[in-house]
Amino acid sequence: MLRLPILAVFLGNLFSIAAVQAADIDAASYGYPLSNPFEATIASTPPALRPELPSDEDIDQADYDIQLRPEREFELPENFWPVTKLRYRMAQQDGRAPLIFIIAGTGANYASGKTEDLKRLFYGAGYHVVQLSSPTSYDFMSAASRSATPGISRDDAEDLYRAMMAVRAQHPKLEVSDYHLTGYSLGGLQAAFVSELDERMRSFNFKRVLLLNPPVNLYTSVSNLDRLVQTRVKGIDSGTTYFEQVLEKLARYFQQEGRIDINDAMLRDFLQSDEQLSNEQLAMLIGSSFRFSSADIAFTSDLINRRGLITPPQYPITDRTSLTPFFKRALQCDFDCYMAEQLIPHWRTKNEGGSLPQLIDQVSLYALEDYLKSSSKVAVMHNADDVILGPGDIGFLRRTFGERLTLYPLGGHCGNLNYRVNSDAMLEFFRG
Q1: What pLDDT, on the 0 to 100 scale, is given for residue 229?
Q2: Which CATH architecture fits 18-217+364-431?
Q3: Tens digit of pLDDT for each residue in 96-128?
Q4: In the chain, which end has fewer C-beta atoms inside a 10 angstrom radius, N or C?
Q5: Could you read off the pLDDT of 310-358 as tens digits, one per residue?
Q6: Domain coordinates of the chain in residue numbers?
Q7: pTM of structure
Q8: Which whole-number Å values give the CA distances from 117 to 72, 153, 194, 385, 412, in the listed order?
Q9: Which domain of life is it from (predicted)?
Q10: Sheet holding 378-383, edge to edge
């Protein structure tokens, strides 16, 4: 992997120490209440500690469709017709205002919970807001991706950039003062590649770009999440599945509460009740969510490209065909499997060969190190206890972003995005 020589790092730290000081937030003054990174990742911020944001009734917003890959209408089975056009959400201010694009995280579509929270935050601060699905979501893969094989960051960024330009073209009368960009999780990594692309294309000239909890080494992050599924959980054996155990705990919790009401507050109460999950169970719940996302990616990529790894190429699929057997097969394929069977062969075909370490360097933040060091408009907010980070990742962020890195002590993976302190810091960054 690409790394600066040790001597260069030492001399850089010695002679320009002021330029590499990240904003490390002290745990005592931060005030975020969840010290368990798994719990924070799942339960997010308690409602009382979130900012006051406009409700949907107070937002002028609508969903729109754009056709970017017309050939998909003929390539995809008939029951995929809803995703042959890319759908996105736009919230508009009354009159001239800055516009911010939000890129969703792994497998998430434009209307996911975190994307909605960010929409309300920025709309309340006076921004036009455009919400985009992740290039790893089945709807983006079907409607906007040229290769339908996500994971090559520059290609994903180019697909996003085309979608952004199409969105702008669809709203010629929208008055925009300047453009901004953000993304969370994998969307944060992709925002960095989109920003670097825009430096060359100059279509938007993004004023400010914020990366929220991005992977540094993409392979490390997905490996961390994949390993969570392999966690050993007490009480799980051949006769009792993990999900049966969690459902039993939920049933007992609802019985004690006397009602069934599934929401963020309920989830947090459940995690702190007598039926609370162990760290191992929490880890497996996070890993299981990622495994479902990986299965979606593997299934959709195989289907669109007719690779025959999961769905036989000539198998007739209609709106009455059960996709369950194929999805079960896809669930047996983790992200390593997707990389080995689909991503790496596709990448090697494009590049006439290449090794796994070369691919990892090309798709991770390492590939943009020089650009990110020199671009004052790009900043990062991350958590020291984020489960997707590996050894050396925080050091890379410190060296690369310096004072443009804000490192929070708690929050897990994106669990504190809707914490008041974080929300205020985001708005402060975009306001300059």
Answers
A1: 66
A2: 3-Layer(aba) Sandwich (3.40)
A3: 999 999 999 999 999 999 999 999 999 999 999
A4: C
A5: 888 877 777 777 777 887 788 788 888 899 999 999 999 988 888 889 9
A6: 18-217+364-431, 225-350
A7: 0.86
A8: 31, 25, 22, 22, 17
A9: Bacteria
A10: 23-24, 405-408, 378-383, 208-212, 176-184, 97-103, 128-132, 86-91, 61-66
